[in-house]
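Q: I have 62 residues here and want to know how they pack in 3D. Can you give me a structure?
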Amino acid sequence: MVYFPQKRDEGIRDGTLKQLFREEIKKSYEEYVDQIGREFAESTTHFQEALNDVLAGGKKLF
């Protein structure tokens, strides 16, 4: 589920997805690191894969 579907669709269409969701992504990543630890977060691609699956609709944008 995406909270801002029109904003997401615009970002995918215009190639500005990262910029449009910059603050949300930053906050989510900080929470992710807090939960699993910086070493694990930086040594895996799980966060980027989740962004691609959920936010980018399966496209490899992150």
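Q: Anything worth noting?
A: The longest helix spans residues 22-36. The helical segments are 5-14, 17-20, 22-36, 38-43, 46-55.
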